[in-house]
Write a structure and sequence with these properties.
The complex is a heterotrimer. Chain A contains 22 helices and two strands. Chain A is mainly alpha-helical. Chain A has a two-stranded antiparallel ribbon. Chain C is mainly α. Chain C has four helices and no strands. The chains are: A mainly alpha, B mainly alpha, C mainly alpha.
């Protein structure tokens, strides 16, 4: 039995959430609660198995799983190395925590809503896991669309605005997916294979051909849209902002990162990145990322809504990943991957907290967060940890991804990227410390300090004071929250786990690097 | 003492304040304030014990070192207690004890809000400072340097009003920007040299690279130190941060933050780049002149300030530049003097700030013009203030004298007589801005009416919780004036640090 | 004239699908009506499907069903693109389904599926943010 589980691990990890999605409606027919718990149980099992799988991969090296016994390149293959295994743990872990976190939102909601949401969330997890596992380019497309479709549904569940932003995302997202599909067509026409490993062997001679170039351009556009790389990010802020608060952590934290990972796979594992042809595209990706890092941060500064600030900050943060891909080299790629991991945790944590605040007080405008730390100390502590990590304060996760990225850039002599990193993290500091000011400092009194800066600051604060009403307890949920803890235990669990994750990912990044090392060293 | 025990002491010196901070933050609002303060005091004493237990071992040349873990690929989080680090650690830990008592007196006397956050952040600062003292390489150093930066922020914005917010923003802009520049420089150093471990005499070797490039990297990195040490033109956050409660100012100015900046300069100049490289690329020269200008200018500005704390702030800006100047002279005597001035200035300036705080809490006066005759009411406080002022000016038999003389000797060794002149001028200037305060306080005529009621037998002195720490700090300073090696063997450590960098005695 | 003929014979069909693809995208960009946008999206997806099918085509090939007279692989068209496109059609069906469902909800909430009307409504509603999420 255990042997069978071990040998089928790769597929079990992906299929369990799918099974959860299928069983959930059936079981919900008898008991809504049991239906939700089913999904949690399946997601949890998938998480445990993905950890087992990671341990196994660090032991024995790469795993290749052939569907139906068909040998690749003819059959579909799940090919796993330490890189994808680590991401699988991250995705299934975040997914598992998200399913728990969403529980309070559905207490007392109708059967249809409850199982609808939980099935779709489970499908999203399945799609993301599949995208990470697969070794087949068309299979990747299918999982990409599973991810996107469930993403559209989850965003649409976030209310009226959610429906609208979901529809807009559907339009743009489909364009992205179509570009990717066209790219597959071109590359399939050139090489005649769909298996990634096989393709990497066959693509060499045709790398210089126009067709391959076009395919690569299409991949950049396709993945760029899906990961919201500047300037292809148009759909993203509204979608992240208006997504269902229970699913927003997973959507904002992980959904944007997996296409970035897929882009990394394509550039470095399918096409050989060291040739001059691929480098041209990497330069483009680098420029897009660098501009995105600045643009996203600047836009984030202007936001007044907590969620949309986080959404714009994601545009900047995905730029870090793109930057790592563009820097190439061992440390560049390592930085990109570490940032995928670190930022997933930070963004999920912040969205967990944002959802918790919204759950309890129905509030998302930052200027009305004054003194909130008295009511929700743990949540605020988690926000502080995640935000400091985003700014890049050591020894949190965000600092070390920046460290590796900067180191990679220095090794490659791309000093301009270090400069961009520095600027972007300082801009991050601007909006996160402003958030702290909102959270921790109460009413403002005008004063007589000198200088135009002081004058402007006082003036702006006076305006803010006029606009803001003192923070009151408002019952956002229909029944109002009356628990002993600051937020329901399920939410508190998610908040604490993600905050701890940030600290641990920072302190033990060297171990992460060690695990990821073999997979990345293979391509540099 | 065994090696393991030494490493244990080293680690606990860093972890005790961190643990104390977390405990205070977690339970501070749910227990009686006496219990909360007990945690602070306990941690302060425990940390001081740990640090001072390390003194004998380091004194005989055993360098306690400890590698905690691999913190990034190829780099470790490691601590090492060398002579230079020990000086700073001893100052910070002994002054934390004193400041803790004083803080309790001040915060209660003044009825401050957010005391839990205050004591927690204070402990966080000390954790950062200890890490900075004992860091064995640049990355560890940077990690704790940033922890220090971030945990000082809540202290600066303690009052949480718009003034505090404004100062907080200013503080963050200066420190975070310079921190990021340090980060960029550090990355370059690591990419070029492949190591970050501090070595006496420096390890940086940009073989064959441009002098301008070396200079640029040095200036990038040293900006982090220069900002915290308040070297002009990067000083303006320091006076702005004066809105914070006085114990914070005392901490900022005497114990942790600005000293960490000066210490950063020392680590960079003497242990990272090394005197030779800096002499070649003129890096030290640039900083030396900036510091020289700061010493004079800040004294001139201080004379104009009527707010006592502001005056002391600018005095700090000037005094800190002595340290930077001493280090940048690139001579053994200069470095010894600089290290010793860290000690001298710490004890004297904390006394001055505590006096200012005591006056503020007891008599509610912050402006010097309102203090005419206050010596009648608070004779002990003002006497302490006068004595500390004289010490700052460099009167013999107070520690300021020895440090300044040693720096002058350094200037002579470096063949830069102009800095001797600057030092003498600045000593006179500091008399010019500090002694008038005492003069006004003890003035016999035109005494403000409110002080007339006070006289012998009818005293409105500060509370004992403030007065005793203040006098203790002054007493320590006095003892050190006579016996430079009293207690933690500061002078010996300073000399040992200098000789490890420059080789041979001074 | 020959060159044009040869070009059309070799690449003409690809050019047509590319034109179709960008026609679809153009429509998505300029149409103000969400339903039309959705239709244009379908046109775009169909173009991709055509493109794939053209790839599998082969001169003289027959349908990939085992039959007498067809000896080797050369005699059949490539079946793989067809198989892939079956999947892609299902995916596009799913996308259209979700899109239509969303459209129904939009029509319900905003009373219109014209971009201009909705943007106006959106601005109006910004003032009273709704906290009711499903």
């Amino acid at each position: 039995m255990s042997n069978m589980i071990i040998s089928n691990l790769p597929v079990l990890v992906v299929l369990l959430p799918l099974a959860g999605a299928l069983f959930c409606p059936v079981i919900s027919y008898f008991s809504r609660r049991a239906g939700r718990l089913t999904v949690i149980a399946f997601a949890g099992t998938s998480f445990v198995l993905s950890v087992v799988q990671l341990l196994r991969i660090t032991d024995v090296g790469k795993i290749s799983y052939h569907f139906g016994g068909w040998e690749p390149p003819f059959g579909i293959e799940f090919s796993l190395d330490s890189l994808s295994a680590v991401l699988l743990v991250l995705i299934s872990g975040t997914g598992f925590v998200s399913t728990i976190y969403s529980l309070p939102f559905f207490r007392g909601k109708s059967r249809f809503r409850s199982f609808g949401y939980y099935s779709v969330l489970s499908l999203l997890i399945c799609g993301l896991l599949g995208m990470t596992s697969t070794g087949d380019v068309f299979n990747l497309y299918v999982f990409l669309e599973i991810t996107s479709l469930s993403g559209y549904a989850l965003i649409a569940m976030g209310g009226d605005k959610g429906v609208l932003s979901s529809f807009r995302y559907l339009m743009i997202g489909t364009i992205g997916a179509s570009f990717y599909l066209l790219g597959i067509a071109f590359i399939y026409g050139e090489t005649g294979t769909l298996n990634m490993y096989d393709m990497s062997g066959l693509v060499g001679p045709v790398l210089s051909s126009g067709t391959t170039m076009v395919a690569m351009a299409f991949f950049v556009v396709g993945f760029g849209i899906k990961m919201a790389l500047f300037p292809l990010h148009g759909w993203q802020p509204a979608a992240y902002t208006n997504a269902h608060p229970g699913a927003a952590p997973l959507i904002a934290g992980v959904m944007g990162k997996v296409p970035a990972y897929a882009m990394l796979r394509f550039f470095f594992y399918v096409f050989n990145a060291n040739t001059q042809y691929v480098e041209r595209f990497l330069v483009v990706v680098g420029i897009m990322s660098a501009l995105g890092m600045i643009y996203g941060s600047l836009k984030a500064i202007r936001q007044t809504d907590f969620r949309s600030m986080l959404a714009y900050s994601s545009i900047a943060q995905i730029g870090y990943v793109g930057l790592g891909i563009a820097i190439t080299g061992y440390y560049g790629l390592m930085g990109a991957v570490i940032h995928i991991i670190g930022h997933s945790m930070m963004k999920s944590c912040l969205f967990f907290c944002s959802g918790a605040i919204r759950y309890r007080y129905g509030e998302t405008a930052m200027e009305r967060f004054g003194q909130i730390y008295r009511k929700m100390p743990v949540t605020c502590a988690a926000i502080v940890i995640a935000a400091l990590s985003m700014v890049g304060v050591p020894p949190l996760a965000g600092f070390f991804s920046k460290w590796y990225l900067a180191l990679g850039a220095a090794n490659m002599g791309e000093y301009i990227f270090i400069f961009v990193l520095v600027i972007s993290s300082l801009l991050n500091a601007v909006y996160f410390f402003r958030l702290f000011e909102n959270m921790f400092m109460n009413k403002n009194v005008a004063d007589g300090s000198k200088g135009i800066g002081a004058y402007l600051a006082v003036k702006a604060e006076k305006k803010a004071e006029r606009d803001s009403v003192p923070f009151k307890e408002m019952a956002a949920t229909k029944e109002g929250y009356k628990g002993r803890l600051e937020i329901p235990p399920a939410m508190l669990f998610a908040v604490i786990v993600s905050a701890l994750g940030i600290i641990l990912a920072g302190l033990f990044n060297a171990q992460l690097v060690e695990i990821l090392g073999p997979a990345i060293r293979e391509v540099v | 003492m065994s090696e393991t025990m030494l490493s244990g002491l080293l680690l606990s010196a860093v972890l005790i304040p961190a643990a104390a901070g977390i405990i205070i933050l977690a339970v501070g609002n749910h227990v009686h304030r006496n219990v909360r303060e007990a945690v602070t005091l306990l941690a302060a004493f425990a940390m001081a014990t740990c640090v001072f237990s390390l003194v004998p071992a380091v004194l005989v040349g055993r360098e306690a070192s400890l590698t905690v873990m691999e913190i990034a690929d190829g780099l470790t989080l490691s601590f090492k207690a060398d002579s230079a680090g020990m000086i700073f650690a001893c100052i910070a830990s002994s002054l934390w004890v004193i400041t803790s008592f004083y803080s309790i007196g001040y915060m209660r006397g003044h009825g401050e809000k957010n005391q839990t956050g205050y004591f927690a952040a204070f402990a966080g600062c000390l954790c950062g400072a200890m890490g900075v003292c004992f860091a064995a390489d640049l990355l560890t150093f940077f990690i704790f340097y940033e922890i220090l930066t971030v945990s000082t922020y809540p202290l600066v914005v303690h009052y949480r009003d718009s003034k505090g917010k404004y100062s907080g923003r200013k503080y963050l802009i200066y420190t975070l920007v310079s921190g990021q520049l340090f980060f960029a420089g550090m990355v370059y150093v690591y990419a070029t040299c492949g190591t970050l471990a501090f070595t006496p005499g420096g390890f940086v070797d940009f073989a064959g690279s441009d002098k301008m490039l070396t200079l640029g990297i040095f200036l990038l990195m040293v900006s982090a130190g220069a900002v915290k040490a308040g070297v002009m033109p990067l000083h303006s956050w320091l006076p702005a941060a004066m809105v914070a409660p006085t114990p914070v100012s005392a901490l900022l100015h005497a114990v942790a933050v600005v000293k960490a900046g000066a210490f950063c300069v020392i680590r960079l100049v003497c242990y990272t780049f090394g005197p030779e490289v800096l002499r070649e690329c003129m890096g030290a020269e640039v900083l030396l002149w900036l510091a020289g200008v700061t010493v004079i200018l800040s004294s001139l500005i201080a004379i104009q300030k009527t707010n006592l704390k502001a005056r002391l702030a600018f005095s700090t800006v000037g005094q800190l530049s002595y340290i930077v100047m001493g280090v940048c002279l690139l001579t053994p005597a200069g470095m010894t003097g600089a290290m010793y001035h860290m000690v001298a200035h710490a004890f004297l300036k904390i006394t001055l700030f505590m006096c200012a705080g005591a006056i503020f809490v007891t008599a509610h006066k912050a402006d010097i013009t309102e203090m005419r005759g206050i010596g009648r009411r608070m004779p002990v406080t003002m006497a302490a203030f006068t004595a500390a002022s004289l010490g700052i000016a460099g009167l013999p038999f107070l520690p300021g004298f020895l440090s300044k003389m040693t720096i002058m000797e350094g200037a002579r060794q470096a063949g830069q007589p102009v800095f001797v002149l600057i030092l003498v001028a600045s000593a006179l200037l500091s008399l010019a801005y500090l002694i008038p305060v005492s003069y006004i306080a003890f003035a016999g005529t035109k005494v403000r009416e409110e002080y007339l009621a006070y006289g012998p037998g009818n005293r409105g002195e500060a509370s004992k919780l403030m007065l005793i720490p203040l006098l203790a700090a002054l007493a320590l300073a006095f003892v050190m004036g006579f016996f430079p090696d009293f207690g933690a063997h500061f002078y010996t450590f300073a000399k040992a640090a200098a000789s490890s960098v420059y080789g041979g005695g001074i | 004239m020959d060159a044009v003929n040869i070009f059309l014979a070799e690449k003409g069909i690809y050019m047509l699908t590319v034109i179709l693809f960008f026609l679809g995208m153009f429509g998505m960009a300029v149409c103000g009506n969400y339903m039309k946008k959705l239709i244009c999206m379908n046109i775009m997806q169909v173009a991709v499907i055509f493109f794939f099918l053209c790839l599998g085509e082969k001169d003289g090939g027959t349908i990939p069903v085992a039959m007498e007279g067809a000896a080797g692989a050369d005699d059949y068209v490539n079946p793989l693109p067809h198989a892939l496109m079956l999947t892609a059609i299902v995916v596009s069906l799913g996308t259209s389904g979700v899109g239509l469902a969303l459209l129904m909800r939009i029509k319900e909430k905003f009373g219109s599926i014209e971009e201009e009307d909705i943007i106006e409504k959106e601005k109006g509603e910004e003032a009273d943010e709704q906290h009711d999420y499903q």
